[in-house]
Amino acid sequence: MSLWKKFLANVELRRIVVLLAIIAVLYLARSMMSIILLTFIFTFLVLQLVKFIRHWIKIPAPLIVVIIYALAIFLLYSAITKYLPVVAEQTVKMVDSVYKFYQNPDYDTNQVFKWINSYIKTSDLMHQFKGGIAVAFTYLTSIGTMGVTFFLSLMLSFFFTIESQRMFKFSRLFLSSDYAWLFQDIYFFAKKFVNTFGVVIEAQVFIALTNTILTTIFLSIMHMPQLPTLAIMVFLLSMIPVAGVIISCIPLALIGYSVGGIQDVVYILILILIIHVLEAYVLNPQFMSSRTKLPIFYTFVVLLIGEHVFGTWGLIVGIPIFTFFLDILGVKSIGNKKEKLKSAKN
């Protein structure tokens, strides 16, 4: 038997080589990573939504896809033309209120603020703050580029989902080609990827929506200003597993103190604690089940490494990628419930 045939017969070695090749290709295409991830997320969520709707209403899938994307475009248009200026204005007001609160001379009577002011003057925080402003300005100037990326991802996901059956049928032809072994291994990893990455992202979106709705309702009861801005901030931070709820505590506490003093800070801390307990003991078991039931230490380590390797995207995709490799290595199976039931019966 030739060396090549021995390599093809060794499935484990072959799959390792294929996985390393996929990682190398993705590394070379890292400049397009935002388009790749957004396209995958949009496609997965739309396909899941179509499947859910067709479970209750038997109408053609392409019609559902057209309605979903038409509604999405309408909402984006409304957000850009009507709500974006309002959110921008409220964001400026929020920053201005925090700035005025800090500039208020009354805070000099508080020993804590005296210590904070002294620490800021004697440390390098102002230099770091200026660097942060420069980074923020860079992000603002790249909004146009991000908008193009978002639009392209939306269009690619639309073309995929509108012809999903044709796409799947055509893609299966690769599994019976002359290099079927290669595409079979790619399909193996793609299936694992969807069962881990896709399901975790879907669950995290539901968790973020639930956290945002509950937090916004509570903040409205407290008569907090700039609710749309705060709601968007909470949603984006809630996309970060576990740590997002804790991170959102800092700006919410600052705004709460500037509005209602220490009493509002206590209320917000209690709210964050309740939301964290709800996410940890209700939402995660309900949406994530046993797919990502990771210890908090592992979660934070993965988030730190993910942010270092992938940047901001790492905070969102770090946990799904980690669970994907846990599944590949056989440490912890992340397959969906139907697959687990089938394997249990067999």
From TrEMBL:
<protein>
    <submittedName>
        <fullName>AI-2E family transporter</fullName>
    </submittedName>
</protein>
<feature type="transmembrane region" description="Helical">
    <location>
        <begin position="60"/>
        <end position="80"/>
    </location>
</feature>
<dbReference type="InterPro" id="IPR002549">
    <property type="entry name" value="AI-2E-like"/>
</dbReference>
<feature type="transmembrane region" description="Helical">
    <location>
        <begin position="231"/>
        <end position="259"/>
    </location>
</feature>
<feature type="transmembrane region" description="Helical">
    <location>
        <begin position="12"/>
        <end position="29"/>
    </location>
</feature>
<dbReference type="Pfam" id="PF01594">
    <property type="entry name" value="AI-2E_transport"/>
</dbReference>
<feature type="transmembrane region" description="Helical">
    <location>
        <begin position="316"/>
        <end position="335"/>
    </location>
</feature>
<keyword id="KW-1133">Transmembrane helix</keyword>
<feature type="transmembrane region" description="Helical">
    <location>
        <begin position="133"/>
        <end position="161"/>
    </location>
</feature>
<feature type="transmembrane region" description="Helical">
    <location>
        <begin position="265"/>
        <end position="282"/>
    </location>
</feature>
<feature type="transmembrane region" description="Helical">
    <location>
        <begin position="196"/>
        <end position="219"/>
    </location>
</feature>
<keyword id="KW-0812">Transmembrane</keyword>
<comment type="similarity">
    <text>Belongs to the autoinducer-2 exporter (AI-2E) (TC 2.A.86) family.</text>
</comment>
<keyword id="KW-0472">Membrane</keyword>
